[in-house]
Design brief:
Strand content: 15-25%
Radius of gyration: 17 Å
Strand order of the largest sheet: 5-2-1-6-7-11-10
Structural class: alpha/beta
Number of strands: 11
Shape: globular
CATH class: Alpha Beta
Length: 217
């Protein structure tokens, strides 16, 4: 009988939706992978815009030993960097995970828990200084792997899809990763090409700053 793999995705107030949903969409395509959404309490939690609510099915303590941890990002991670309940859980589960991973600013939580000290890692480009404050070297790669440490970090938002495909490859095999990719028809061909700081014009960056500072009522 093929062993099953449990993936825990923590959700918290003000999470970034695609950070969690991107990996979820990839991982849940594999029949031997079970995804559980965990948090401080069971019940609904809303994304950073307040527009999307997702139900957490278990508390942290109810999932003490997942095979894989995928920690998403969002502005809500700043509170979690000082939340000892969360940090203790991250340290505890990492002791037995097959892989411990993050997307976007989820890496700040891994760093605050001491898992990334002295390593290279990635996060959203706007938060490199925050990551480096934890004695971590931030790099602009989509996915950073430390296989000997059982740690993968993904850059901002959409990078979590790339990381999840790599996870499937590591957990199952390359064909499984290709199958998951085809099932979600992940074949990016965007009509514009400004997905990294290196490609962005000054005009584009000015618009990013405008949108980021606008907030939502």
């Amino acid at each position: 009988m093929t062993p099953r793999t449990t993936v825990a995705i923590p959700l918290f107030d003000d999470f970034t939706a695609l950070d969690a949903i991107g990996p979820y969409e990839v991982l849940q395509r594999v029949p031997t992978i079970d995804v559980v959404v965990v948090g401080h309490a069971r019940g609904e939690v809303r994304s950073e815009t307040g527009m999307l609510g997702i139900t957490r099915d278990a508390t942290f303590e109810e999932v003490p030993a997942p095979d894989v941890l995928v920690f998403p990002g969002g502005v809500g991670t700043r509170v979690l960097e000082r939340d000892e309940r969360v940090l203790d859980w991250v340290r505890s589960v990492h002791a037995t995970t097959t892989w411990t991973t993050s997307v976007c600013t989820g890496s700040l939580v891994l760093a605050a828990a001491g898992l990334l000290t002295g390593l290279t890692a990635t996060t959203h480009w706007a938060t490199y200084p925050e990551l480096e404050a934890y004695d971590v070297t931030a790099v602009p790669d989509r996915v950073v792997e430390h296989l000997e440490r059982r740690i993968l970090t993904a850059a901002g938002v959409s990078s979590g899809i790339d990381m999840a495909l790599r996870l499937v490859e590591l957990l199952v095999d390359t064909t499984a990763a290709r199958a998951a990719q085809l099932m979600i028809e992940y074949d990016p061909q965007p009509p514009v090409d400004s997905g990294s700081v290196a490609k962005a014009t000054e005009e584009t960056m000015a618009r990013v700053i405008e949108y980021a500072s606008a907030g939502r009522s």
